[in-house]
Specification:
2 domains; alpha+beta; four-stranded antiparallel beta sheet; 4 strands; Bacterial polysaccharide co-polymerase-like
C-alpha cells in the first residue's frame, strides 16, 4: 500500500481574516470606541504634573580639596575638576537632605502649608549633561507649579553651598546659570496621546476576543 501523503498549508488565510473583521466590524468598533472614551475620561481626571527646567554650566576648574569631596561620595582618589564629580554629587543623599531642609525652612518662613504638603522629593530632580555643549539641564516635575521653581533653585543653591563646605574649588559660585527655572505652561503628565492609544488598543483586543467567542458559539449551534 502506498504511504498516504499529508499536505500542510502554512500560508495565512488572509481572505478568512478579512471576512472575520468585516463580519464583526461593528462589534469591534464599539469596543474600540469604548476604550477611547474610557482613556479620555481617565486622562481628564488623572492628577496633572508640570515640568520645570533650568540650564547651567560648570566652568572647568581644577579642584583644590577634592579629597574630602571624594570621601563624601564614596569615591577613591582625589583631584580633577568639579565638573567631574557633579553628577555623582547630585544623586547623593547629602544633596536630597540639604534640599529638603532648605525647602522646609523656606515654606515655614512663607507660612505656606500647601507648598509643604505638596513637597515630594521621592522622585528627585533629574540632571542631564549634554555631551556636545557641556551644558546641564535640571528638571523637576510636580503637581504644584509654584513649588517647581523653588525646588530647582534650591538644588542649584545647594550645589554651590556644598562646594564651599567641602572646598572642591576656590570659587564660591561654581555654577553659572544660563536659563533660570522656568515651568512649562502645559502639563507633562498625564500623556493624552499615550493613554488614549493604549486604551484604544486594549478595546480593539477585547473586541476581537468577544468576536471570537461569538463565532465559536455560533459554530457550536
Amino acid at each position: 500500500m502506498a504511504p498516504s501523503t499529508v499536505l500542510y498549508d502554512d500560508e495565512m488565510d488572509f481572505s478568512g481574516i478579512f471576512k472575520f473583521f468585516f463580519k464583526f466590524k461593528w462589534l469591534i468598533f464599539v469596543f474600540v470606541l469604548l476604550g477611547g472614551i474610557v482613556g479620555c475620561i481617565y486622562t481628564w481626571h488623572a492628577p496633572k504634573a508640570y515640568r520645570g527646567n533650568a540650564t547651567f554650566f560648570v566652568p572647568s576648574q581644577q579642584s583644590s580639596g577634592a579629597q574630602g569631596y571624594s570621601q563624601l561620595l564614596g569615591l577613591s582618589g582625589g583631584g580633577g575638576s568639579f565638573d567631574t564629580y557633579i553628577l555623582a554629587f547630585f544623586k547623593s543623599n547629602q544633596m536630597k537632605k540639604a534640599v529638603s531642609a532648605d525647602l522646609v525652612r523656606q515654606f515655614n518662613a512663607m507660612k505656606s502649608e500647601d507648598l509643604l504638603n505638596g513637597l515630594n522629593l521621592s522622585s528627585a530632580a533629574m540632571l542631564v549633561k549634554d555631551p556636545d555643549t557641556g551644558m546641564y539641564k535640571l528638571s523637576y516635575e510636580n503637581g504644584d507649579r509654584a513649588l517647581i521653581p523653588l525646588v530647582l533653585g534650591s538644588y542649584i543653591k545647594n550645589i554651590n553651598l556644598m562646594n564651599i563646605r567641602y572646598e572642591v574649588v576656590p570659587q564660591k559660585q561654581v555654577i553659572q546659570v544660563l536659563d533660570p527655572p522656568l515651568v512649562e505652561s502645559r502639563p507633562s503628565q498625564p500623556n493624552w496621546f499615550k493613554n488614549c492609544a493604549i486604551s484604544i488598543a486594549i478595546g480593539f483586543c477585547i473586541g476581537i476576543i468577544v468576536s471570537l467567542v461569538f463565532e465559536k458559539i455560533r459554530s457550536l449551534k
